[in-house]
């Protein structure tokens, strides 16, 4: 199940990272770089939903795909956040919160799997909401302009990325609360 269509789509999110970063080094106008990076991010982020749908529809789910999918998402989000910090469109504090949480929860999930309690830190609705807000905030910040001559994506993106940071902390606290009883029960 290493090279199924859904897994290939997941790999595209990882391959997309240097492409999105590289756009900002092209000798073209800033608005054009912003537009290209935004479209690329949206297209590649959409593969997250599509690869899961196809894996279920084509009966091509696998343990490797289940592992790779969240890793690809985290790489794409973290790389985009670093680009946004570099461009002074996202606060470094927000990036540290989001990236730090991803590392901490990934480590927690690994540990919980080792002690046989991975179900206690399974993805919850708060984590999905956090991801959705991030996936809207990031392209708004990448675009950094007027959308339909009405919406200032820079301002909206700032609000959304800070909301995402709050949701990030909330979801981390939620997962830690779920994990602590399991950890205590197994470490006595």
Supply database-style keywords.
single chain, 188 residues, mainly alpha, two-stranded antiparallel ribbon, 2 strands, 78% helix, globular
Low-confidence sequence ranges: none
- Please state the structural category: mainly alpha
Count of DSSP H/I helices? 6
Distance between the termini: 39 Å
Strand content: under 5%
Strand order of the largest sheet: 1-2
Helix-strand sequence: HHHHHEEH
Please give the share of residues in helix.
over 70%
Backbone shape? globular
Number of strands: 2
Q: Give the biggest sheet.
A: 2 strands, antiparallel
Transmembrane segments: 6-28, 35-54, 155-176
Subcellular location: Membrane
Membrane topology: Multi-pass membrane protein
InterPro entries: CDP-alcohol_PTase-I, CDP-OH_P_trans, CDP-OH_PTrfase_TM_dom, CDP_ALCOHOL_P_TRANSF_CS, Phosphatidylglycerol_P_synth
Question: Could you characterize what this model shows?
Answer:
It is a multi-pass membrane protein. Its main location: membrane. Its EC number is 2.7.8.5. GO terms for molecular function: CDP-diacylglycerol-glycerol-3-phosphate 3-phosphatidyltransferase activity. The chain has six helices and two strands; from the N terminus they run αααααββα. It is mainly alpha-helical. The protein folds into two domains: 1-88, no CATH class; 90-187, no CATH class. Strands 1-2 form a two-stranded antiparallel sheet. It starts with a helix and ends with a helix. The model has no long low-confidence stretch (mean pLDDT 87).
